Amino acid sequence: MTDQPPIGPLDSSRVPRFAGFATFARLPRIDEVEHADVAVVGVPFDSGVSYRPGARFGPAAVREASRLLRPYHPALDVSPFAEKQVVDAGDIAVNPFHVGEAIETLQQEAESLTADGTRLVTVGGDHTIALPLLRAAAKKHGPVALLHFDAHLDTWDTYFGEPYTHGTPFRRAAEEGILDTSALSHVGTRGPLYGKRDLEEDRRLGFGIVTSGDVMRRGVDETVDALRQRIGDRPLYVSVDIDVLDPAHAPGTGTPEAGGLTSRELLEILRGLRELNLIGADVVELAPAYDHADITAVAASHVAYDLVSLLALRKGE
Ligand SMILES: N=C(N)NCCCC(=O)O
Ligand SMILES: [Zn+2]
Ligand SMILES: [Zn+2]
């Protein structure tokens, strides 16, 4: 540990923000600091998808879009990069030809990155990666509360007989006992399912659902109140599938569904999570090939910035 103030991002009034290396928010790399409090890490992996591929290019697109982020977050009243040492930890390069091996590698790398207390905001990558990230989180903190923003439940059982896919991470996690089943919520779900049974099985695993329509009818404040009550002070992992946003707000994703949240609603709900016991988070399913004018990449970079800011607000660490 050092008494030095954190190394911040490049100053955009001195070095044009469109110049230089594309680390997240133009922050230092992990190897440039002695200790990182918060690390943004990419997982360029999309071998678990059931429809359009391309999320392997998500981390690079988020880094590019994050060049415009500024150091002060007015809605949360925090300067995350001054409060904590935040870094870009690069990418965890996993095997694109072997889902099982990729999951093992990712779990190990996440465990070693967090071994001395660093908290991760992981940028995917498809939703398969949430399982090893949750395993690593639970190894450290015990079973975690999960707040899952997504158009989809992702508690399906198998695809083509395969248990590890982007539609199944949370069923596997529940089966493995790494989730605190008293505090599991999906937010923003919508769209057609395979059958009513999907919902029954999801409920049996312990999930509560706030659909996209519920958010619209109840509004952000009531939604946040209900989520905060359910979560309490449990260790909380937040997983954001960018397809929770309406395709108008996030066209760049592999399994888009009509009728989603606005980016404003999502960011406002995230800001409502301040002072909860957030231990880690991910933003997944950004597939830049289907994006237009970086709409989705900008949204994902802002979501990542909000998650970093929530972690930076943690006291006494
Ligand atoms: N996790 C995401 N984005 N999508 C899951 C979709 C599963 C399906 O194809 O039914
Ligand atoms: Zn989804
Ligand atoms: Zn998902």
From TrEMBL:
Top-level taxon of origin: Bacteria
Species name: Amycolatopsis saalfeldensis
A biological process from GO: putrescine biosynthetic process from arginine, via agmatine
Positions that bind Mn(2+): H127, D150, H152, D154, D241, D243
InterPro entries (alphabetical): Agmatinase-rel, Ureohydrolase, Ureohydrolase_dom_sf, Ureohydrolase_Mn_BS
PROSITE patterns referenced in this protein's UniProt entry, alphabetically: ARGINASE_1 (PS01053), ARGINASE_2 (PS51409)
Lineage, opening ranks: Bacteria, Bacillati, Actinomycetota, Actinomycetes, Pseudonocardiales
Keywords per UniProt: Hydrolase, Manganese, Metal-binding
Protein name (database record): Agmatinase
Cofactor notes: Binds 2 manganese ions per subunit.
Record family assignment: Belongs to the arginase family. Agmatinase subfamily.
CDD domains: Agmatinase_PAH (cd11592)
UniProt cofactor(s): Mn(2+)
Coiled coil, from the record: none
GO molecular function: agmatinase activity; metal ion binding
